[in-house]
Amino acid sequence: MRHFLTTMDYTRAEIEGLLERAQRFKRRPIEPRLKDRTIALVFFNPSLRTRTSFDVGIRELGGHAVVLEPGRSAWPIEFEEGIAMDGEPEEHIQEVARVLSRYADLIGVRAFPKFQRWEEDRQDKVLQGFARHATVPVINLETITHPCQELALALAMKERLGRLDGKKFVLTWTYHPRPLNTAVANSAVLIASKLGMDVTLLCPSEEYHLDERYLDAARKSAEGNGQKLSITYDIKSAYEGAHVVYAKSWGAIPYFGRWEQEKPIRDKNKHFIVDEQKMALTAGGLFSHCLPVRRNVKVTDAVIDSPASMVIDEAENRLHVQKAVMDVLANGW
Ligand code: CP
Predict the structure, then answer these.
(1) Angle at 55 between CA 105 and CA 186, to 5 degrees
(2) Which residue from 182, 304, 298, 194 is spatially nearest to 247, judged by alpha carbons?
(3) Which are the contacts of 134, defined by CB distance < 8 A and separation ≥ 6?
(4) CATH class for the region spanning 7-145+318-331
(5) Ligand 1 in contact with 145 (CB < 6 A)?
(6) Which residue, by CA, sits nearest to atom 6 of ligand 1?
(7) Residues 253-263: what's their mean pLDDT?
(8) Confidence of residue 189 (pLDDT cuts 50, 70, 90)
(9) Which of 263, 281, 288, 324 could disulfide-pair with 22, CB 3.0 to 4.6 Å?
C-alpha cells in the first residue's frame, strides 16, 4: 500500500504520469473511478480550495466525502505514543486511523505545524501517525509540505510552457504580517527541481533558508536533471531571465517560538512584493501563488490580474491532480 505524503517518495516518471492522468480528468471530468468509495478528509486547519476541490473531485468520480474536524466536529486526538491520556484528547491516533480505515477507502489529512519548535514540527507527527496506523492510503492535504499544490502548479506551468526542462523557476519570499508555514515553499522547490527546472530561491537573508531536508532533495533533483538550485538575496539577479515567479511568505526557521524577534526583520522586507517593475526583468515570466493571497502586500493588483498570472488556473488544477492521485491510490496505475 502506498501513501501520497510527499513527492519525494515519487519518481519523476510517476509525477509525470499523475500529471498526464490529471490532464485526462481535465478533458473528461466525470468518470466512475471512485464509484461507491468513501474518502475521509480530516481537517485540523481551515481551507477553501483543498476542501472544496476534494469534495467536488470525489463526487465527480462517483465517491462520497466525509469531512472531519478534530477538536470541533470530531473528538480531539492524541498523537504521542505510550502516554497516559489525561489531557484534552479523547482518543488516540491508533484507534482513529484504524477505525477510519474500516469506513473509508482513502484518508486525507491537513495538519499545519504549531510554529513553536521547528525540530518538533519537522517530524510531521500528525500525518506520520495517520500513515503509520491507517490500513488505507493517506493523502497529505498540507502539513509541512503541500504535494497536491505541487502537482497543480506543475500542471499549470506545463500548460503554459510545455516542457519545463531548463526553464528558470524563482521562488520568492514575500512579506506577510504573520509568519506562515514553509510547506508550500518546500513544495515549490521540490517540484520545480524534480521536473528539470533551474531553481532560484530568493529570500531576505540566510535566516529564511528552508529546511536543509528540502533544499538538499531539490539540489539532488536539479543536479540529476543537469540543472542547479541557487539561493540569493539579490532581487534583481533572481528575477532576471525568470520563466516563472512563484511567491510565498514563510516564517524564518531560527525564530520559531520567538516570533516577536522575527517581526522587525520581516517588517524591513516589504519591498519583496511582486510588482510590475520586478516582473519586467523576467523573460516574459509567468506569476503564480498557491492562494489565499494578500493583494498589494505579496503581489500587486497589476501582476496578479495580468495575463501572466496563473493563480486561478493553478487553483483549478487542484481538482484535476487530486482526482489523479485518488485514482492511482485507490485503483493502481
Ligand atoms: N492553496 C490551498 O491549499 O488553499 P486552501 O488553504 O484554501 O485549501
Answers:
(1) 85
(2) 298
(3) 97, 98, 100, 101, 107
(4) alpha beta
(5) no
(6) 47
(7) 95
(8) very high
(9) 324
